[in-house]
Write a structure and sequence with these properties.
Blueprint: E1 2-4, H1 8-12, E2 18-23, E3 34-43, H2 51-59, H3 67-83, E4 91-92, E5 99-102, E6 111-118, E7 122-130, H4 141-149, E8 153-154, E9 159-160, H5 165-171, E10 179-189, E11 195-206, E12 209-212, H6 213-222, H7 230-252, E13 262-267, E14 273-279, H8 283-306, E15 312-314, H9 320-332, H10 342-351, H11 358-367, E16 373-375, H12 399-412, H13 422-454
Parallel strand pairs: 1-3, 4-11, 5-12
Antiparallel strand pairs: 2-3, 6-7, 7-10, 8-9, 10-11, 13-14, 15-16
Helix pairs in contact: 2-13, 3-5, 7-8, 8-12
């Protein structure tokens, strides 16, 4: 219970309203009401205008950035506008055919891809990631706020960003026909989709086209794409062919091959839910996913081989108790043979595709998995079937990726002192895992609020 300490007369006009209160006790007495002072009247608790703002206030998450952070980001943007991207000390890839492929609604583009044919049926794939580390220095105002947030949070009607828009949308975003600083991962694949060579370096790039998943998927479906050159269409065809082989090999090597469809809530101009749209995984999305997974693996292997402290993405296999519970729930759904490994899980998931119980079976398989987390120790990722894995490809929206960029720069430049100590990585890994979990809960809760209002 919360007891407001303000005078009854002062509080009378706020009765029945949704209010924000600030707790005034450092250590509330057990069994006694928590005392708090009135801060803000939000009005009608059933108002659609309060849906997400109340959630943000309840979780202590702010959309706006402190003035010092905004000023620092504006200063960086102004300098970039005056002087442009500095190519010194970087590999110049501005003449290479590099593309971005993102959702049609995206405003910032932190990854781009390229592909080149090589003799013997081999391919050189490039993954080019916005070099956020070039602008966000450790311990700066922007860095401290980004660390506090840990990641961007994608709610039903808005994005609470990890970094200010002056950085994410204007400076770091890989907009087409502009010079941008990037960190590149190049991987040579054989004709079966196996990685043969990997290298990383800082670069300067100039994206030749900004494409959407929807537009690329339409090209895959129809063979037509207006408004682009023939070499872009050829590059997309080659990327599609390579991504298919990489993906098939990944599942052959033991990756989980199932997921629940993403559900998007459609809102009107006032924030009222008007419907829900199921968004399935398209081949265009799978193409970019495979490129990013390959780059994340390559960086993880390089950091691990260097023997320096690194932050890795780890996913443990289910415990004995989880396997047993999964078997019981599947048995209740008519699947009598208990699963014992990933191959069994994939077999069960594929057996229900298109059937009435597909959702329930897939949900059972997914909720019996452990949650992936960040760790200082490089251990296998059960769900992806990888022995080495990290997050590198989204430094605009995930702080662990920014950490890894700094570690990789230290390796590439031959710095004697690692970017972070083992103890620092361990603390950062715990913090980033917690902020990620909190964001996921908020994202789910924001959808639930709108779902309840819809029904």
């Amino acid at each position: 219970n919360i007891k407001l300490t303000d005078s009854p007369r002062k509080l009378e006009s706020h009765l029945g309203n949704l209010v924000l209160a600030q707790i005034t006790e450092d250590e509330p007495s057990e069994g006694q009401p928590v005392t708090a002072k009135f801060v803000q009247d939000l009005g009608d608790p059933d108002s659609v205008a309060n849906d997400i703002p109340a959630l943000l206030l309840d979780r202590g998450l702010e959309e706006t950035f402190p003035e010092t952070v905004k000023k620092a980001a504006t200063h960086i943007h102004s300098g970039q506008a005056r002087h442009g991207a500095d190519p010194r000390g970087r590999v110049d890839l501005r003449n290479r055919l590099i593309l971005t492929i993102d959702p049609a609604t995206a405003h910032d583009y932190d990854d781009a891809v390229s592909i080149e044919p090589l003799p013997g049926g081999r391919w050189k794939m490039g993954v080019h990631i916005a070099d956020v580390a070039a602008y966000v220095t450790p311990g700066s105002e922007i860095d401290r706020e980004a660390l506090r947030r840990g990641n961007s949070t994608y709610l039903v009607d808005r994005v609470v960003r990890m970094l200010p828009q002056d950085l994410t949308v204007r400076v770091c975003s890989l907009q087409p026909d502009e010079d941008h600083l990037a960190h590149t991962v190049e991987i040579v694949f054989d004709d079966q989709g196996r990685a043969l060579e990997e290298k990383t370096f800082r670069s300067i790039i100039r994206s030749k086209a900004c494409l959407s998943y929807e537009r690329v998927q339409a090209f895959f479906d129809t063979g037509r794409m207006d408004g682009v050159t023939e070499n872009i269409r050829q590059a997309l065809t080659a990327l599609r062919k390579l991504a298919r082989k990489i993906r098939a090999l990944r599942f052959e090597n033991g990756a989980l091959d199932f997921a629940l469809p993403e559900v998007h809530c459609d809102l009107d101009a006032n924030g009222n839910p008007v419907g829900f749209t199921k968004r399935g995984s398209t081949e265009a999305y799978n193409l970019i996913e495979e490129c990013m997974l390959a780059a994340n693996q390559a960086v993880a292997r390089k950091v691990f081989a260097a023997g320096v402290p690194g932050i890795f993405r780890v996913h443990d296999e289910p415990s004995d108790e989880q396997w047993a519970r999964m078997a019981d729930e599947l048995r209740a759904l008519g699947h009598r043979t208990p699963p014992a490994d990933i191959q069994d899980l994939n077999r069960i998931a594929r057996s229900v595709v298109g059937k009435p119980d597909q959702y329930m079976v897939t949900l059972t398989l997914l909720r019996s998995q452990k949650r992936a987390a960040y760790e200082a120790e490089c251990r296998p990722h059960f769900g992806l079937g990888f022995t080495h894995y990290s997050h590198f490809t989204s430094p605009i929206r995930r702080y662990p990726d920014l950490i890894l960029h700094r570690i990789l720069i230290g390796i590439e430049e031959g710095q004697k002192k690692p970017a972070y100590s083992r103890e620092e990585i361990e603390k950062l890994a715990i913090h980033c895992s917690e902020t990620e979990r909190e964001s996921a809960e908020m994202e789910s809760q924001s959808i639930q609020i709108k779902r309840i209002r819809y029904f």
